[in-house]
Amino acid sequence: EYRARVAASWVTTIPVFRNELIRFDPSAVDTAAMAAALKAGTLADTTAVLRFSSGTLLLRKVLLPTLAEATVFAELVEVSNGDAYDRTGSVFLVSAGRSPSFLDGLTGGVGSLPVIEDREGRTYQGICATDDYVPPLELVRFVTPFGVGFYNEQVRVKGMVWADSVQHTMDVTELLPVLHGSVWIGVFIGTYDTGGHRVSLNMRYHPTSREVTDAPAPDGWLQPVFNTVNVLEMSGQEYARIFAHDSLTAEFDLPPGIGNIRLRYITTGHGGWANGDEFNPKKNSVFLNGREVGSIIPWRSDCASHRRFNPASGDFWNGVSSSDLSRSGWCPGSAVEPLTIRLPDLAPGRHRLQVAIPMGAPEGDSFSAWNVSGVLIGEPMQAPGNER
Q1: pTM listed for this prediction
Q2: Using the 8-state DSSP alphabet, how is residue 338 labeled?
Q3: pLDDT in tens, 145-183
Q4: Nearest Cα to 124, choosing from 277, 22, 226, 1?
Q5: CA–CA dist 263, 310 (Å, integer)
């Protein structure tokens, strides 16, 4: 117990959300005044939890510690409050230092965000970086299970003990250069259920040195370049169907003196019928300045190991549960592992990044979509003669 207390004394835990409700409530207007204050920059209550997009998106401004060296975890706990289905979820950081900002989309509607148009004329709001705008920086992608907690007492399966909740703990240390000071952090769950879900979120900082110093946060370069997770889905933000006829293209400017550049890439395929991309492996290809620099086929074949989180999942005649089925990069009740794509050495200046996915065709009212997010991470290079 003594050793545990000593270890815990080094840890800084920042509670972001505490058992907060995320549900579909189109009549919700309780944060309208705070939203107006947010847009005007006069929000006084920085502890307030703001709700947007019919209650499916939470946002809060928090003060994160400044540590030069630390291991950082984002810890999310989710439990059903009535929703029986698997839903896309995202924990993200919003940059407020530019105009337009994603905050404009929250307070002024998706029409306030920069748009791109595919070859079919469909528009996508706020998904790519521009000279003035950066999309939300995704910390954690997760998928809710089928009704964990809420349906535990209503469903009995011999030999199965249901979990009370699901917890995701993601190492986000590589994002430490922006995980300090005053920041906006949000959580989204794409639910149309009026019961919805309850979530709690902590940011935990574990120092990697026993020496306490006043050193600043690490001097790294991070540039969010795209994020197609439509966290404003209930406000009309388009699903990521752009891959049907186009690649996703974003440009970025690399400043001088930055090396060891990599893309932190998160991807999940959706389209929940036999021919939908949820259930069919698809290659994700990443191109830099027209040359392929990486590819991956995201696929999860371990979904059956998450069965204890899915009491409301349908059980088939052959003993398989619907939550057991393999999927494109995700499982019900899982977090999604970020992938690292190393980029070649680049000269300072303008560069073009593209993502291509052979997305399947719609069938009737059903269509596929791919939620992909990417942030570029680089490190300052030592000047000649100043190497350590």
Answers
A1: 0.94
A2: P
A3: 999 999 999 999 988 999 999 999 999 999 999 999 999
A4: 226
A5: 33
- Write the CA distances from 209 to 4, 171, 178, 344, integer angstroms: 18, 18, 20, 32
Q: Which carries the bigger pLDDT value, residue 98 or residue 236?
A: 236
Which whole-number Å values give the CA distances from 378 to 19, 136, 219, 260, 337, in the listed order?
35, 18, 10, 6, 20
Listed in sequence order, the residues at least 6 apart from 226 whose beta carbon sits closer than 8 Å to its beta carbon are 127, 128, 129, 135, 248, 250, 353, 355, 372, 373, 374
Reported residue count of the chain is 388
How many Cβ atoms are within 10 Å of 252's Cβ, its own excluded?
Answer: 20
Cβ atoms within 10 Å of 18's Cβ, excluding its own: 12
pLDDT at 384 over 60: no
Residues 6+ apart with CB under 8 A from 340: 262, 263, 264, 265
User: Residue type for 136, please?
Assistant: P
Cα→Cα distances 195→145, 151, 186, Å: 15, 12, 20
At 55 the three-state DSSP class reads coil
DSSP 105: H
Which tokens is 244 given? 């049907």
Gap between the Cα atoms of 279 and 363, Å rounded: 14
Cα distances (Å, whole numbers) of residue 126 to 99, 228, 323, 370: 12, 8, 32, 15
Q: What is the DSSP string of 177-233?
A: GGSSEEEEEEEEE----SS-EEEEEEEEEEES-S----PPPP--EEEEEEE---TTG
Question: How many C-alpha atoms does 132 have within 13 Å on its Cβ side?
Answer: 7
In whole angstroms, what is the distance from residue 150 CA to residue 191 CA?
Answer: 15
The amino acid sitting at 339 is: L
DSSP H stretches of helix in the chain: 2-9, 32-40, 102-108
Mean pLDDT of the region 182-201: 97
Indicate the DSSP class of residue 240: S
Q: Beta-strand (E) ranges in the chain? A: 12-22, 50-52, 57-64, 70-80, 88-94, 115-117, 123-125, 137-143, 166-171, 181-189, 197-207, 221-227, 248-254, 258-270, 284-288, 291-296, 339-342, 349-356, 369-380
pLDDT at 383: 59
136 cis-preceded (ω within 30 degrees of 0):
no
Tokens, residue 111: 């029409």
